[in-house]
User: Which sequence fits this backbone?
């Protein structure tokens, strides 16, 4: 990861950059949001599928956080499905899947909803989140 003092802000254009340009693991979430905005802009342009493929191709560095590593793979797979692309090979690696379920909302009452609503790419990696987990305004 890059030290905050060594980087100037720029929108992440790949999942690799999401992690590479993060000064902290918390920055990964902000960079991911920017990356999703970038993908939404790509979706409106010609050759969107080719550009999205390129943005997912390079495996992001491992973060040291199993949930984040699985989440990044789920994002790659989800976007691939959305654009009718083949998910990148790295997204199916064993260490990109959780051994035990992880729920975005810790409350027991929410689990049934998360089990039902999680996008397939997330469920496949034992991540249970809201159906709009990747929604950006």
Assistant:
């Amino acid at each position: 990861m890059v030290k905050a003092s060594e980087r100037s802000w720029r929108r992440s254009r790949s999942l690799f950059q999401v992690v590479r340009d993060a000064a902290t693991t918390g920055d990964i979430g902000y960079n991911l949001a920017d990356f999703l905005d970038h993908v939404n802009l790509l979706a409106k342009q010609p050759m969107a599928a080719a550009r999205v493929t390129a943005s997912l191709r390079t495996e992001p560095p491992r973060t040291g956080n199993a949930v984040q590593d699985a989440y990044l793979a789920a994002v790659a797979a989800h976007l691939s499905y959305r654009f009718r692309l083949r998910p990148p090979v790295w997204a199916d690696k064993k260490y990109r899947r959780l051994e035990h379920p992880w729920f975005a909302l810790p409350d027991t009452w929410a689990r049934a909803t998360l089990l039902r609503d999680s996008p397939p790419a997330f469920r496949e990696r034992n991540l249970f989140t809201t159906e709009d987990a990747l929604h950006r305004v």
